[in-house]
Amino acid sequence: MRQILWFRRDLRVEDSALLENAKDEVLPIFIFDKNILGKLPKDDKRVTFIYKSVLSLKSKLKNLGLDLAIFYGEPKEIFSKLKKLEIDEILCSIDFDSYAKKRDKEIEELLPLRRFIDSFILNPQEHLKSDGTPYKVFTPFYKSLNTITQADSIALRKRNKTITLVDFDYKNFPTLEGLGFEESILPESLYKEPLELLSLFSLKLENYQENRDYFHKDATSKLSVHLRFGLISPSMVFNYIKRFSNSEFFIRELFWREFYNYILFHFPNSQAENFNGLDIKWNENEENFIKWCEGYTGVPIIDAAMKHLNETGTMHNRLRMIVASFLTKNLFIDWKKGEEYFALKLLDYEASSNIGSWQWGASTGADAAPYFRVFNPYSQSKKFDEKGIFIKSVLKELKDIETKLFHIENGVQSNLFVNYPKAIVDINFSRKRAIEKFKEAKK
């Protein structure tokens, strides 16, 4: 038996479905996919992080007596060549977004492809309602998983220690520059190992439920990028956090990620269509969309959040909800445009979670916010950043502004000594307009 172990978004040796199911001779590989990289800007921070993580995986595999062959190209072309090595099958983790399904179908025409649920805890084909249909609402979905969520731990996969390495050239692989990218400086958390981040987060767990919404506080786990690319498995995160008595709220958050993957699997059209089927006539004001993207809306919390995203590739979850509500309700611009922009910028971009979250904010998705729930960005910034700590850290030109002005519509603009653009939309008017348009769509 000769197998290719195709690492993709499971860049680890612990709790690895590939290493558990590997047999006899193996060729571990990673492919920097031209079809994906070709759409990214040359300074995309994710590529730096993935490249660093792939080299780390190679080192860890070598410590186990294995290695990693690293390729750059189109998967179909690469597997056409590898097929000549008398390969019996390919083992890989499964993805449910449209590109992944199309890519895997092409590869399966060349070689048998055996897929594993390795990026999530749940198999979305399971855990259906009693009538055999999938859940569409999170709370009953979560309650149905009681035997899992209330367990002390989830069994982890064990490595097959009897496998041997296929003779191959493992020494030659592309540089980051050879991929066409520049090395980027990453957020500090991305230079830490996942278990170190978990250890630090455990100290904050007691106050997590209360503090997680305050985006100027260091209250979150910072694990989203590591989970996205599989440097740690969700089961490992579950087991670590479950040791603490106050773990329930974080565990629930972990299963929101599972829920969105479950929804994308059962309703693949939701990647490009409103999940609830509403036919909404969105505003097509491109100028306002660009101002939202670049952080020039005249609303301090929106502008700070978007400029911070553009600079760092990160955004706090509360801020994601605020900017999504502003785009889809106040500007009444299609959620898909926001989703696509986040896909370009977010270090932790994951199709299922991003699509699900945007449809939640736009009131078009599974178990979404009701259409009449429109976040007021000024009251949100007052509630969660009253002293303007986050806003001032990003919008340096406003560092001397009286803080209360951040939380008043066009308040900053009332200061004659500051050149700050007028808000591009009236909050109350746009809120009423959004509600009326949703009512029309529902009819």
UniProtKB/TrEMBL annotation:
Gene3D superfamilies: 1.25.40.80, DNA Cyclobutane Dipyrimidine Photolyase, subunit A, domain 3 (1.10.579.10), HUPs (3.40.50.620). Keywords: Chromophore, FAD, Flavoprotein, Lyase. One of its GO terms (biological process) is nucleobase-containing compound metabolic process. FAD binds at residues 208, 220-224, 250, 253-260. Its cofactor is (6R)-5,10-methylene-5,6,7,8-tetrahydrofolate; FAD. It comes from the Bacteria. One of its GO terms (molecular function) is FAD binding. Binds 1 FAD per subunit. Residues 1-128 form the Photolyase/cryptochrome alpha/beta domain. The record marks 282, 335, 358 as: Electron transfer via tryptophanyl radical. The keyword Transport does not apply. PANTHER family: CRYPTOCHROME, CRYPTOCHROME CIRCADIAN CLOCK 5 ISOFORM X1. Belongs to the DNA photolyase family. This is Deoxyribodipyrimidine photolyase. The lineage of its organism: Bacteria, Pseudomonadati, Campylobacterota, Epsilonproteobacteria, Campylobacterales.
